[in-house]
Amino acid sequence: MSAMQREMDVAKRAKVIEWLKTEVVDHVSRLFKALWEGSTTRITDSLASLIVSGYILGRRLGVSYRDLDEAILEKLRKHKQEGHQLEDWYQDISALEEHMRKR
């Protein structure tokens, strides 16, 4: 690969990362609008899009899907150990951890 091709590849990767960052912001905006409207369908779609963009952005930044999953599970374990309020009140942390482990 020539020096010019490497530079173009680096520029392309940087552009994709910037684009993905705007996608994350856009999905957060769409989620907030869906929450305001109370549309369960749009809330679900926005959350799914946000999660997908987060995974792909992570991959573009060098974080494998498996490593991201493991980091999420570690964060859930840490929240449980620290007595996170959502765990105390609703057991949301345990429920998500169980869901992820069963996949």
TrEMBL record:
Q: Which GO terms describe its biological process?
A: nucleoside triphosphate catabolic process
InterPro entries reported in the protein's UniProt record? DCTPP (IPR025984)
Q: Name one GO molecular function term.
A: nucleoside triphosphate diphosphatase activity
Source domain of life: Bacteria
Q: What is this protein called?
A: MazG-like family protein
**Organism this protein belongs to:** Paenibacillus faecis
Lineage of the organism: Bacteria, Bacillati, Bacillota, Bacilli, Bacillales
